[in-house]
Structures are given as structure tokens and as C-alpha cells.
Recover the amino acids of this structure.
């Protein structure tokens, strides 16, 4: 309408009702409401009550699922449990419960919103002509009226219970998304008791126990798992007598071979002549394997290649004959440098193709890594087993601001 294009005074705008302002706003925006029909034109329509009841149900499901998610996330026993342990079932259900409750919380809110739009909000077809230009006072006033009109025609304003449920479901769905982020926040300077996984800080690992006078063997992972045992009390699974980690001797590796090894304390060694079938050291072995900075590559170079090896200054005695031990944690972003190319004596990281020279103290020669792989000083004890002669003298894995080398 041409009349909508003229300038309106404040007095004229104040004199208009909300419906008049809403109609004027659509005209100013070049919008034509071609069709509008209320979903339930008759008051107290039973169909409307059924529609609202369905929305209530989905919002209640979303709220209850959100509360259940927070309860599981905070209070459920999540600690690792071995097969056969009393709380093993609770441990295995932790992640599935998080997935089910978070999914129901978000889906409940989503279904409720979709149902509300499909069954409560009036049907409407509007056509708008696009135009450019800054917003004038009349535009600002009329858009407010349009928003008020949308609020009234949606009937949400008079549905107090629905408002509360919708707000509660929205808040809990948001918490479902945000709450797990709290578990990712870690203080890298907060130290706990030093153990086979380090003390929780970035500059320690299981190998740091050597600084406390603990003998640490280089042990390989056998992949052994719990075994089924049948006795007077019935059939159950047990790890008693099972050694996941076994100590490595020099003769266990062929020339040009590589073995991934982990720190094993003398107290937890249960193999060879010291094997005791009644001991259960499996859990401690698994902690060593899961230590984020524990994996080490034990490499046996060919004798001819070892004679050409270049030692790093201050680390000339870190190797034992043809045997070299390098951290398996890439100095780029912490991926496992799990590939050893025996023909070229190169250590490769499969994530971003960094390459390190095993003949030159693990020096990076290709890719994004800019720091040599830290070398573990090793020796062989009187029984022929490899042991750590000392701790790493530089930080393991990617660089961080607090490292001193």
C-alpha cells in the first residue's frame, strides 16, 4: 500500500494498536500475508489438548534424560574394572548410558519444538519483496509489534506450564552438551602421587620412578587377557597368574627388529624364573600400558649400521651395544611413531609423516616434527634383562611452554 510508505509521527504510532502496527510492519517490509489459519480455532478443542499433552511428554522426557545424564556423568562408577570384578558391569554401562541419556535429552527437546511448530503455531504463507536500505524508526517500532504478534498467535504466552518445561528442557539439553567439556579441562601443573603412569604432570611418566630408586625393566606386551576359571564357587574370569607384560632380554630381538616396551617395576615382574601362578599383577601391567608417555621403541640395529650411529652429545652411553631405546611419542603432536623401516633405519609417524633417523639420535629428517625423539638410557642386568639405566633427560612428546629443553 502506498500509504505505508509515508512518514509516521510518534503520536500516530502511539495511537495504533498492536494489530495495526503488525499489519503496517508487514507492509513496510514488503510482506504480504497470503494465508493464515489457526490450528485450533475452536476454544478447548480436544485435539489441541492432545497436541499439547504430546509436547509435554516429550519435554518431560528431555528434562528427565538431561537430569539422568548429569547423574550418570557425575556419580556413576566410571573407573576401569577388569573382567570378573564386582563393578565390571557398571564400568561397561557408563559410556552407553551417557549416549542414551544425552541423546534422549536432545531428541526430547527437538521433538517437542517440532511438534509445537507443526501442531500449535498457526499455518501461514507470507511473500516478501527484497529491498535495501537502513532501518528507520517506523521499522524498529513495527518489528517489535510483529514479534509481539508472533508471541500472541503462537499461544505460548498463555501456556505457562509449557514455558517452564520448554525452558527447563533447553537448559538441561545445553548442560548435556557443555558438562562433558568440564572433564576435558585439566591443570597440567597439579601433581598427584608418582606411579607407573607418572604423577599426572606433563613432564613425568612411568620411567620417572627411576628417580626414586625403583628398578624398571623394559617389558613387552603379550596381549594376554583374563582366563575362564571353574572352581567350587562356579565359573568366573580371573587374571591371577597372567602376566600382560614380560621382561625383554637382548636375545629376544633379531637384528633390524623393533619392539614396543613399557616400564615394569621389579615388584610387578611375574615371569621367567620368578613366575608365581598365585600372583595377580595384571591391573598394574595395564596401568603401565595405558600410561600416556610410557611407550618406548627398543630397536636392535644391524651391527654394520650401529657402527655408523652418531650419538647425541651427553648421551653417548645411553645405548647398549646395538640396542637403542627411543620414546614412541612423536614430538610433533603426540601420535605413536609405530613404524620402523629396517632398511633405512628410519622411524616413521603415520599421522603426519614425520621421519626420524635411528642412526642419528632420533633426529627428525622429514615432516613437521622439529625435535629429536628422547632417548632412554638402557643397560642389561646380571640376569640378562633390559633395565632403564636412568630416566629420560628431556620432556616426552610434543613441546609445551614449561619444558626446559
Amino acid at each position: 500500500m502506498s500509504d505505508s510508505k509515508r512518514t509516521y509521527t510518534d503520536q500516530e504510532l502511539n495511537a495504533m494498536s498492536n494489530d495495526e502496527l503488525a499489519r503496517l510492519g508487514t507492509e513496510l517490509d514488503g510482506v504480504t500475508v497470503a494465508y493464515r489459519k489457526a490450528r485450533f480455532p475452536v476454544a478447548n478443542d480436544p485435539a489441541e489438548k492432545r497436541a499439547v499433552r504430546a509436547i509435554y511428554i516429550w519435554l518431560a522426557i528431555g528434562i528427565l534424560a538431561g537430569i539422568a545424564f548429569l547423574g550418570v556423568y557425575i556419580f556413576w562408577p566410571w573407573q576401569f574394572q577388569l573382567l570378573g570384578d564386582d563393578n565390571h558391569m557398571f564400568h561397561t554401562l557408563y559410556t552407553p548410558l551417557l549416549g542414551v541419556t544425552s541423546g534422549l535429552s536432545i531428541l526430547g527437546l527437538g521433538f517437542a519444538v517440532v511438534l509445537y511448530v507443526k501442531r500449535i503455531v498457526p499455518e501461514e504463507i507470507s511473500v516478501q519483496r527484497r529491498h535495501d536500505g537502513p532501518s528507520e524508526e517506523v521499522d524498529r517500532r513495527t518489528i517489535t509489534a510483529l514479534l509481539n504478534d508472533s508471541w500472541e498467535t503462537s499461544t505460548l504466552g498463555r501456556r505457562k506450564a509449557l514455558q517452564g518445561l520448554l525452558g527447563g528442557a533447553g537448559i538441561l539439553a545445553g548442560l548435556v552438551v557443555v558438562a562433558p567439556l568440564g572433564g576435558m579441562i585439566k591443570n597440567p601443573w597439579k601433581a598427584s602421587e608418582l606411579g607407573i603412569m607418572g604423577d599426572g604432570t606433563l613432564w613425568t611418566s612411568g620411567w620417572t620412578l627411576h628417580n626414586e630408586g625403583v628398578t624398571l625393566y623394559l617389558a613387552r606386551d603379550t596381549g594376554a587377557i583374563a582366563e575362564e576359571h571353574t572352581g567350587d564357587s562356579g565359573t568366573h574370569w580371573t587374571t591371577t597368574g597372567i602376566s600382560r607384560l614380560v621382561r625383554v632380554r637382548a636375545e629376544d630381538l633379531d637384528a633390524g627388529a623393533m619392539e614396543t616396551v613399557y616400564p615394569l617395576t621389579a615388584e610387578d615382574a611375574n615371569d621367567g624364573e620368578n613366575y608365581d601362578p598365585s600372583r595377580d599383577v595384571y591391573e598394574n601391567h595395564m596401568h603401565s600400558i595405558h600410561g600416556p608417555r610410557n611407550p618406548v621403541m627398543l630397536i636392535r640395529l644391524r651391527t654394520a649400521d650401529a657402527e655408523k650411529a652418531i650419538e647425541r652429545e651427553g648421551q653417548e652411553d645411553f645405548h647398549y651395544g646395538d640396542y637403542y631405546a627411543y620414546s614412541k611419542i612423536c614430538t610433533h603432536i603426540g601420535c605413536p611413531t609405530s613404524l620402523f623401516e629396517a632398511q633405512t633405519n628410519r622411524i616413521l609417524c603415520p599421522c603426519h609423516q614425520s621421519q626420524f633417523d635411528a642412526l642419528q639420535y632420533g633426529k627428525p629428517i622429514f615432516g613437521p616434527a622439529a625435535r629429536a625423539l628422547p632417548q632412554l638410557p638402557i643397560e642389561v642386568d646380571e640376569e640378562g634383562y633390559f633395565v632403564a639405566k636412568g630416566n629420560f633427560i628431556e620432556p616426552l612428546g610434543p613441546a609445551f611452554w614449561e619444558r626446559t629443553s
Observations:
- Helices lie at 10-15, 18-28, 46-75, 88-119, 137-153, 160-182, 282-290, 303-306.
